[in-house]
Amino acid sequence: MAIEDGPENDGSATPFDAWRLVGELEVTLDVDVLFGAYPDRDGPPGTPGAVLETLAAHHVRAAAVANLRAALFDVRTGNDELLAMTARPGIVPVGAVDLRDPIGAARELERLASAGARAVRLFPDEQGVEAGFPSVRHIARRAARLGLVVLTGGDVRRFWQPFAGLGASVVFLDTHFYHLGDFLVAAADEPGFHTSTRLLNSPDALETVAAEIGADRLLYGSGAPHYEPLVPLLRLATSALRPAEIAAVAGGTATKLLAETPRRPAP
Known about the structure:
By secondary structure, the protein is α/β, with parallel strands linked by helices. Helix content is 39%, strand content 15%.
């Protein structure tokens, strides 16, 4: 990918080669990937083959993947489709639940945990659910008791609250650099709170997190295939983080989190 910066017609444009800056950086685990399509917006079809091709083209070896069919249409069938891919290289299945049905969602969490899932993804915006709804706290408690890592969308300034005080492992997928200060003060009291890097594209966002609470709270997320994967990849590659920190952000921490989160018995 080559982008021309500057005037187009006076010969003074400077070629910008993003891939030269990315260099040999590889992501060993991307925590923010979806199969499937949104019915109400334009975008790629999100077939597994096409998504995995996109990831490979952007130096991503493996991804924690959720299925939009489970999030938007049919929870059990969508989750089963994904669980059937457990043995497929490059895929770490992430379950989904319907927060509008807290009783059914709690049962689905137990089923997912029994099937070997390590994480669940919440879609509050897509499901029209707010952070203060009782269903969110109910599912947060149940996920924590089962030892499931929670990947959640939603405004971090509100969605940190249902997970507070539970000892939960949570990855906030939609942390915007405008709201980074709120994440940092919440995460200072919650060692299980992490953030995706997808929207942390300001000049010093990654470095600020590393300095304030540690680079091990940053997990690489691309939002593929519905967001441009090159942007967070380029930001990480050009950051001032140390090589060991970059490796942790690029999948080391996520791999450890998903592999080592203790499984707890259902209440």
